[in-house]
User: What shape does this take?
Amino acid sequence: VTRATTAARAAAAVSAERLQALFHSISEVGAYGRAADGRHGCERLAFSEEAHIAHQLFAEAARETGLTVRRDRIGNTFARLGPADRETAPVLTGSHLDTVAAGGCFDGAAGVVCSLEAVRAVSLAFRESGAALPRPLEVVAWANEEGARFPPAMMGSAVYAGSLPIEAALSATDSEGISVRDALAARAPGEGTQPLLPPASYLELHIEQGVELEAAGVPVAVVDGVQAQLAGDWRMIGREAHAGATPMERRRDALLGAAALITEVSGIAHAHPPGVATVGKSVAFPGSRNTVPGLVEATIDLRHPEERAVRTMAADFIRAGEACAAQCGLSFEFTERWRSPRVTFSPHLVDLCSRAADAAGIPALRLFSAAGHDAVNLAPITPAAMLFVPSTGGVSHHPEEFTEMNALVQGARVLSATLALLLG
Ligand code: GLV
Ligand code: MN
Ligand code: MN
Assistant: This one.
């Protein structure tokens, strides 16, 4: 039996019914905003009750499929097919189950569900070909990819890859001062095992969150890399004052300075095409109608395919912050929260994904990722690559985020064929 035959068998063994059933059960966790057609959004912030339940559903489905499940100290869930020894490194595949606040059902979960089904299909194909699996296959559901509540983003994969110390991750706090350690302890007391060997390779399927696949009418993309990113928090500090009794020239209005800076942010991005810049959150204090705001706390997210451009955009942003603060008699503070480099995926693995799509008879584009992914953290420690499936209208981080079930199945087939080629 040739490798291409086993890959084609692995692609064909993917069950649309199984994939759909698990995807729908996970999608019900944290469901909100149900429309007349039954579609809805998902909110499962990292380390919440909802995220925990989603990890449990994944673990149950994996056990039913014959995989062995363990969870590590940061709350990543691993499901392994094959012996849990320290001799043979597994091929790892997965994505995340947490979402942003008011998010969609597909960002992350699509990859976890497709990975489990792909691993099941590969094991069937090897059995059919009369061959033993040459190394373990492991499916992972990463904890806290979004970093929406507890920065940094891609936390679980960073701890796993060794780029973020576990103690630093556990000590990270949300805006209320609650730590990851406390949030984890409330859900899964006493759990946690050390990672085994680093993986032999890593594959992640994800929704595109852009419009290229839809525009091309192609079901799958092989991803070449991910753009660089810098995330920070910033503050404008003024002084609270009476909204009636304080003349305009005596005010130090923090919200006025913040508004001026926010207006500059899109110009900073436009000056560095194709860079993007976002102030996703800003809160004015004390938040009272008849008090001049004395403090604004806000975020900034800067991205560009080139790391140098991200650094220039950050310097431009800080300079603009200081200038806006000076104009309004305020002080400006900036704290960098995380940086993620530009990543180029393993050319060998990218090529293997393309050949797997051929073997499965599924057309595939090549794309570069604008969004961040856990694969960014895996790339320095093992050959990594990603597959994208189409996002209707490019909508993501929104309840209307949507991918056709057939596209998920096609993606799982290419993933399954890639795993088979990797093992073959
Ligand atoms: C993850 O969703 C990101 O912010 O790119
Ligand atoms: Mn996301
Ligand atoms: Mn994601």
User: Anything to note?
Assistant: Residues 96, 107-108, 145, 206 surround manganese (II) ion (ligand 3) (CB under 6 Å). DSSP finds 13 helices and 18 strands in the chain.
